[in-house]
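so i finally got all the pieces together for this one. its two components total, 680 residues if u count the protein bits. some of the lines might not be protein, just check the labels. i wanna see the whole assembly predicted at once instead of chain by chain like last time, that was a mess tbh
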Amino acid sequence: MKLASYHNNTRDGQLMMVSRDLGRICDASDIAPTLQQALDDWDNVEPKLQQRYDALNDGTVLSQIFEPERCHSPLPRAYQWADGSAYVNHVELVRRARGAEMPESFWTDPLMYQGGSDDFIAPRADIVLPSEEHGIDFEAEVAVVTGDVPMGVTEEKAAGNIRLLMLVNDVSLRGLIPQELAKGFGFFQSKPASSFSPVAVTPDELGDCWQDNKLHLPLLTTYNGKLFGRPNAGKDMTFNFAQLIAHAAKTRHLKAGAIIGSGTVSNKQGTDFGSAIADGGAGYSCIAEVRMIETIRDGRPSTEFMKFGDTVRIEMLDASGRSIFGAIEQKVRRFEAEAP
Amino acid sequence: MKLASYHNNTRDGQLMMVSRDLGRICDASDIAPTLQQALDDWDNVEPKLQQRYDALNDGTVLSQIFEPERCHSPLPRAYQWADGSAYVNHVELVRRARGAEMPESFWTDPLMYQGGSDDFIAPRADIVLPSEEHGIDFEAEVAVVTGDVPMGVTEEKAAGNIRLLMLVNDVSLRGLIPQELAKGFGFFQSKPASSFSPVAVTPDELGDCWQDNKLHLPLLTTYNGKLFGRPNAGKDMTFNFAQLIAHAAKTRHLKAGAIIGSGTVSNKQGTDFGSAIADGGAGYSCIAEVRMIETIRDGRPSTEFMKFGDTVRIEMLDASGRSIFGAIEQKVRRFEAEAP
């Protein structure tokens, strides 16, 4: 199934169902008014949604043309957003760029940060931020949405708790990260609101590409109209989504609608320095990684972070070249605070 | 006003209104079904709630005896839970106990961590955790619930966004903190679910005790039936709640129902080592602080963390000795994972 939330002047939007080819959309709010409410009562709601989805794909239910610009993030706000860092290659590069060793334990103990989830950005809305000086970056990722997950869940059981997948732009303020992490309490101001793909999909939609709790497809990032990255999200993912969920649930329950992110998708590409798209490589899912490679190679970074007016597009295509989740497509814009 | 959420077999509970003296309770779910929904539409809902509250206190509306054991945390789940560390004395002690200097900037730049908010513990429910080895501790705190707060809000405007106050038990797993913070991404497994007082109150209920965006009353913590702390929450609070909100909103909007915590309440008490209740002092709001003082004084801690079966009670009384928020009253219990 493919689900979306249309703007309807409420905080949580209206639950909609999108056809497999993303061509058509129909209302599903009579089954559950919002996606959160569907997730809250998934066992009851899921069969009804499935029936509607079949009818939508068969063309036997009233539908409209799908307009992604009318979408909220599938969950416009959520009760839990925890982001892993499963592509350890990315983490190793960060460390190497600043001349630090990465602890061996990072290969066995996932990094994960607690994100803010009260105000996600819509997939086609501008990223509105106060200052370019903060070092604005995108991070292209994959995320899952869980059902209720009990504390201490095993990896095997966690796999069965994955309800939906989405793409993420985990917007980061690189200039604020060093001071903030030095304080010892993790990210806060350096991780402003994230955005998610227009459409959330159930794992069965992904066919063979969903294996070992990883999504084996290239994640396409286009920066200012130019392809910037196409690393395969199934490759070099040290911790799969079931492992990330089990890590998150070690000392707590996770409740329906919890979002668990993969971290920036990154492929090792057989070289110490990765390889840009222009060099025939898989490219990157964030600017920071290019800058790290430049630093390791040249002694200093040369690619700048995002400026106001810059655009980023994040998408994933199936084997036949069709968009699975719809595209995140955003421009960075200056925030104008209200007059005091 | 005093608001609570009664268990009603839903995830968010039923919005209830509690009389000023905590003696009586009446339904308010006809005005807004849940506290989150009330906060989502506060400007419209607040006058109706106020009218009901007046009637409840006058005894002109149908009411029952208030039973705090029927309460969820006022927000059983929330979209945002960010916890400051406003009592810098506490932070300085942590550092000193491990022989580290505290950066000067900690007096001007608040520490804040992003907490998980999808599954708060009810104020009279057991704290259920997998292992005593994790170093189970309580942290008695005060928190505010905000309305919609725009990015870049000034301290002055932030003050006007405070809708409610609550008490918190920010349960912490001390044994997991050092390794987790060393990874650089902040708390995750070391900060399991928190619990909140049975009742959330509007600032006007606090009269003169609410000044300068601080709550000037002793916060009482009773550990295994013995008074453990009574530090004044208005004293030694380096950052007030308006400042904490402004810090949280620097690069993001905060949405209605965001919870911002004070961090462990701690008084300096005119000595380098604080002073226990038994010595006539104000005592402490967490076990870790006692252990730090023991470490500084004796070279090693002697007070143990919580064991299964231990109890903690957190409460605040008004000038006439009446409970303002009701008491958080919890026992620590071992979590039994489902059979795999």
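Chain A has two domains: 2-66, 77-334.
Residues 77-334 of chain A form a domain with the Fumarylacetoacetate hydrolase; domain 2 fold (CATH 3.90.850.10).
anyway lmk what u think
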